[in-house]
């Protein structure tokens, strides 16, 4: 069970747990819950996965029981929010890491896995993937870097102002290699957006986003227009949130 659940308006929620392991467990639980609701409402559920290191513990849980059997994987379509433009076998491939962590262990039809085409030129890959993603995602999973970036939307980048295209090529990040990323309009149309944030090194940007609402940080702008926004953080990532902010939101 989460340590604290902090409410901020009707469609905004923050969940603070004690450890990265508890964060993974809460993320997997919420993943299964949202998929069940999406399947019940629309028979199919579209999910955009996040890359990076934070979601890997959650992915591992999804590939094991009870989630391996409980989730109706044949009704789930998996996409990615961003990807490095490398082959799937490369160590930096988000798709490749997801295969290692859980895709190879679940009964999901291969046609339900929609990897970003990292092996083709970035402009071509963005155009191709933009035609493949759904109009509305049931769930978009996001992380946040120490610079406040999310997906591959980096501070100060022209990609932050893109309103027409759904997927674009970008440069930046660590490692600094070409990437593909979804844009803010895709995030804004989602039914559920869930951030997974772990570690003390994320505490300062968490404070900047959730207390100061600093819109220079892309993560502060990743807000669904009508859907739910949920931040799941471990205690270290939430450590700089002032008590008055926590206490105020606990009483909403």
**Cα distance, first to last residue?**
20 Å
The tally of domains stands at 1
Strand order in space, largest sheet: 1-2-10-9-6-3-4
Query: Helix content range of the residues, please?
Result: 25-40%
> Radius of gyration from the CA trace?
17 Å
| Beta-strand percent range | 15-25%
Average pLDDT taken over every residue = 92
Q: Please tally the β strands and state the result.
A: 10
**Helix-strand string:** EEHEHHEEHHEEEHEHHEH
Count of helical regions: 9
Which structural traits does this protein have?
252 residues; 10 strands; alpha/beta; Rossmann fold; 3-stranded antiparallel sheet; 19% strand
Describe this structure in words.
The protein is an alpha/beta fold. The protein has one domain: Rossmann fold, CATH 3.40.50.1360. 30% of the residues lie in helices and 19% in strands. It has nine helices and ten strands. It has helices spanning 20-42, 56-62, 67-70, 94-101, 122-130, 184-188, 203-210, 218-221, 243-250; strands at 4-7, 12-17, 45-49, 76-80, 82-84, 139-142, 167-170, 179-182, 192-197, 228-234. The strands form two sheets. Strands 1-2-10-9-6-3-4 form a seven-stranded mixed sheet. A three-stranded antiparallel sheet has the order 5-8-7. A hairpin with an 8-residue loop joins strand 7 (167-170) and strand 8. Helix 1 (20-42) packs across helix 2 (56-62). The radius of gyration is 17 Å and the shape is globular. The two termini are 20 Å apart. 44% of the residues are buried. Mean pLDDT is 92; it is low at 1-10.
């Amino acid at each position: 069970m989460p340590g604290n659940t902090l409410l901020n308006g009707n469609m905004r929620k923050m969940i603070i747990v004690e450890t990265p392991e508890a964060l993974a467990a809460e993320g997997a639980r919420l993943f299964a819950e949202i998929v069940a609701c999406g399947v019940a409402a629309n028979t199919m559920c579209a999910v955009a996965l996040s890359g990076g290191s934070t979601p890997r513990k959650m992915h591992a849980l999804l590939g094991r029981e009870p989630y391996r059997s409980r989730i109706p994987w044949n009704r789930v379509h998996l996409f990615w929010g961003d990807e490095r433009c490398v082959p799937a076998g490369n160590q930096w491939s988000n798709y490749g890491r997801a295969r290692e962590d859980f895709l190879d262990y679940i009964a999901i039809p291969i046609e339900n896995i929609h990897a970003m085409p990292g092996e083709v030129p970035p402009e071509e890959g963005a155009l191709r993937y933009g035609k493949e993603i759904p109009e509305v995602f049931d769930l978009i999973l996001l992380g946040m870097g120490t610079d406040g970036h999310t997906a591959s939307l980096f501070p100060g980048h022209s990609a932050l102002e893109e309103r027409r295209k759904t997927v674009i090529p970008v440069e930046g990040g660590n490692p600094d290699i070409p990437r593909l990323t979804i844009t803010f309009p895709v995030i804004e149309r989602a039914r559920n957006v869930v951030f997974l944030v772990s570690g003390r090194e994320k505490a300062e940007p968490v404070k900047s986003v959730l207390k100061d609402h600093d819109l220079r940080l892309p993560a502060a702008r990743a807000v669904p227009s009508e859907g739910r926004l949920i931040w799941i953080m471990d205690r270290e990532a939430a450590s700089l949130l002032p008590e008055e902010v926590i206490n105020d939101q606990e009483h909403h």
